[in-house]
Amino acid sequence: MRANKPKKLTSQFAALRRMLSAADHSAPPVAAPPVGAGRRAPVPAPPTASRKTSVTTLDEQDRVLFRQAVKNVQPIKDTQRAILPPLASASSEILRERRQRAVGNEPGKLPQTSDHYAPVKVEQDDASYVQRGYGPDLAKGLKRGKWLIGASVDLHGNTLDEARERLDRFLQSCLAHHIKCVRIVHGKGYGSKDGEPVLKQTVRRWLSQMADVIAYVECAEADGGAGAVQVLLRVER
Question: Torsions phi, psi of 119, nearest 5?
Fold first, then answer.
């Protein structure tokens, strides 16, 4: 009786080992813990539902109509520049004042002539002029070439309005650059209407009205003769 008892226990243990072995083979493998075990792994957020976007498609008829509407449209090139509205152009008077200020002169100094001057036949001799307060030696000095001509302008062929504007700009520039003696070519007037030298008489009348014109004389024949005058300006140094 005692001899059979160990055999019975042995067989029971063998059966138990078989059962445990079968259970190990049937159970899923256990994953090894990651490095840094002990920290709780973050719980992944539940996937969010994707938003549904509604796309409206054009049918073939709408596509044909759209292509017909834009068939003459040309794409604008990307120039990276802002397109600004055009600025209003300034008048000639404003531009003239800006030029005068640019050279350091206050506008309105020249000319001191009438805007409504109507040329008339001059009775007195206008071949020379000396401003009141100066002696006749100035005219004699001009004729002898005491002052060299520093600048010249040719108004021959201009209308009265064109001549006045050009004369104004010319004298302003000469005063700004301290040019004392200048020549103004106005022509002899042989081709004028009614045979009157309109531009010649008008230019000389203008010069006699200007405060900065001290004197003028007709030029020598080599410099224009009766078709030009040599002018002495009051230059502040």
Answer: -65, 135
